[in-house]
Design brief:
By secondary structure, this protein is an all-alpha fold. The longest helix has about 40 residues.
Length: about 110
């Protein structure tokens, strides 16, 4: 059970921080400035502390209203919603990466045919 909770809870956080940090690493705004990249990455990583703080509070609020085997059902609904929202936030990054891959493929195909 704990691995399932970790996958649902840690998954959105890991996806977003990794994708945003990787996206920032290729951004013109911070390219060449290790300090700027480190600052922005630290802010993103630190914002995960908000979720780490609110998570147990929300869990206690959701579980105190019920008892029995269905006590944690609403907690998992919240975790699933968080994963869905994280996926929605990553769509733009994913679309940019797909566009880059297409451009690379077209360039490779045109260079091979020349």
């Amino acid at each position: 059970p704990s691995s399932g909770i970790n996958a649902e809870y840690g998954g959105p956080y890991a996806l977003i921080t990794t994708a945003v940090s990787a996206d920032l690493g290729t951004s013109e705004a911070v390219r060449g400035s290790a300090q700027a990249l480190a600052t922005v990455s630290a802010i993103i990583d630190g914002s995960g502390s908000i979720g780490a703080t609110l998570g147990p509070y929300i869990t206690s609020v959701l579980t105190n209203k019920k008892s029995g085997p269905d006590k944690y059902k609403n907690v998992f609904y919240v975790l699933e919603a968080s994963a869905f929202i994280a996926a929605l936030c990553l769509i733009r990054v994913m679309m940019k990466e797909i566009a880059k891959l297409r451009v690379r493929r077209i360039r490779r195909l045109t260079s091979q045919s020349s």
